[in-house]
Amino acid sequence: MIPVFLLLWIGSAVLLVREKRAVRLIIILGVYSLISAVCFFLLAAPDIAMAEVVVSAFSTILFIVCFEKYYSNVAPDRKPRRKARAGSRLIPLAFTVILAAAVILLIPEQAPPTYLKDLYMSRFSGEIGGENAVTAIYLGYRMYDTLFEALMLLVSIVAVVHLSHHDDEAVSVETPSGVSDSNIVGVTIRVLCPVLLLLSVYLVANGHISPGGGFHGGVVAAAFFVCRYMIYGITDMRINNVLVMEKIVYLVIVVFSVYFIILGAHSYLPIPKGIFLTVMNLLLGIKVACGFFIVFYRFIAFERR
Amino acid sequence: MAIAQIVEISSIIVFFIGFYGLITSRNIIKSIASITIMEMAVIVFFLGLGFLDGMNPPIGAAVENAADPLPQALVLTAIIIGVTVTAVNLTMLISLTRQIKSTDWDNVKNTSSE
Amino acid sequence: MTIAGEIIIAAGVIFILFGVAGLVRFKNFYARILVTAKIDTVGMMTIIIGMAVKHGLSFFSLKVLLLMAALLIVNPLASHMIARAAWSSGYKTDAQTGKVKDENKDYL
Predict the structure, then answer these.
(1) A74 in a domain, yes or no?
(2) I need a labelling partner for C26 at 20 to 30 A (CA). Which of A41, A258, C7, C95 fits?
(3) Does A188 contact C84 at a Cβ distance shorter than 8 Å?
């Protein structure tokens, strides 16, 4: 089963690299992400597979919005493509093949050590709580990773906000194309929107006992806001409040995790251990949802000429 | 051949397919897609380390023959970071196309030299 | 119960196989989307029902059936949206381009 999907995976990567047209490239990228999600699932990582599915849906939306925005800027290329020399394709190919062969030969033969895995698997339920070992690691044993990852998210969102030219006029004028005049889509999305929000709450609340957690739930909640944009537009949302809220939530995450994990309140306070994980998942979910919503908003509100 | 070795070799192959796309592509959006390809390959490599056939997901307090949860926890954050990096790249692409009216790397070189 | 579930799953796979055959056989965009929309929905639903039958009455099969309800709504919606976008961006049907002689041309 695994080799079959790995072959499909390699094949879709080759298709993606050989494709020249941008729209097809975006669609094949979505297919590639889906096949890699199946590979993650077969490699006994349902958490990663879920994250990949929700994130690839979101990144496909970003690619499509980006294509729509730059398509109006790009002038058609009239000058004839200069003829490629015979070596211009062959030399990079040979270089890549030699490099890949060298790396494959350098893989160590023996399996990696498993003492850390055995330690975590035997202890996480008593020390951190919950039943999902992945959640117990990224919210307990490796808290610093999650903190700095949240900081990275904050920094990338600041970069997106800084690099994009925001134009309030463009937002208020714009109506979501193709949706507002199709009655079927409008009604169906109105029905499905609350279900999406319910799904994100389910993912966050069950993050410590089943696959899921703050990151997945946050992206699904951001997808809820995308659907909301498709019905009503986003003129009624104040983006500055969301920006401030994201920073406050990050501060709360830092304070909370320092108090519970690093100062050790987790071990002596008489609260059930699942509560800490649920609250942390909730905070992370709010933060990720805010971040992805800001990215989507800035992409939509990108100035049009 | 063990399943872990198959996974590792195919992920290295995919990584270098993405690398080839990165160094030969003339379209900027294809370069961004190639970065995504390389990222997925690294993730599969991490998950394949020490994987044996018939392993269970590491969920449940007393699961037997579980897969290694540590690379999974590390990789989970990398996926979320990856999509925000893609978002930053795409933002820069939109700003760039406004200036140079093209998505070709050659035109980028021409404008920056003037 | 297990055998019945597996038979239903096999039927779903055969449905999807027919869909792929149709995708290869038809050349026109609208014919292709007609085939894939129906076959995707029916095949996926059959596979999901087979999985629910295979696992019997449990929380798992309840979740899977909820998934089927979501698929039942979303899948035709996505096909509708793709076909609508193609139509509004100017794809022609075979009858319009004149490749196929259509008796109902006047009614289009």
Answers:
(1) no
(2) C7
(3) no
Q: Token match 């490599």: residue?
A: B45
Domain that holds residue A262: 114-300
The total of structural domains in chain A comes to: 1
Give, in order, the Cα–Cα distances in Å from A53 to each of A13, A60, A241, B45.
17, 11, 29, 18
User: What's the pTM?
Assistant: 0.87
d(CA A58, CA A54): 6
- Residue A212: inside a domain, yes or no? yes
Q: pLDDT digits over A145-202, tens only?
A: 888 988 998 999 888 888 877 665 555 555 555 455 677 888 888 888 888 899 899 9
**A84: exposed, middle or buried (Cβ count in 10 Å: 0-12, 13-18, 19+):** exposed
Q: Which of A291, A72, A75, A62 is nearest to A170 (CA)?
A: A72
Q: Residues B74, B80, B86, B91: is their CA dihedral positive or negative?
A: negative
The contacts of residue C23 (CB under 8 Å, 6+ apart) are: C32, C35, C36
Assess whether chains A and C touch, using the rule of 3 or more C-beta pairs within 8 angstroms: yes
Residue A5 in tokens: 């999907």
Q: What is the DSSP string of B11-26?
A: HHHHHHHHHHHHHH--
Nearest CB neighbour to A178, from listed C70, C73, C85: C85
Domains delineated in chain B: 3-109 (1.10.287.3510)
Tell me which residues of chain A, numbers 245 to 284, contact chain B at a CB-CB cutoff of 8 Å.
Answer: none
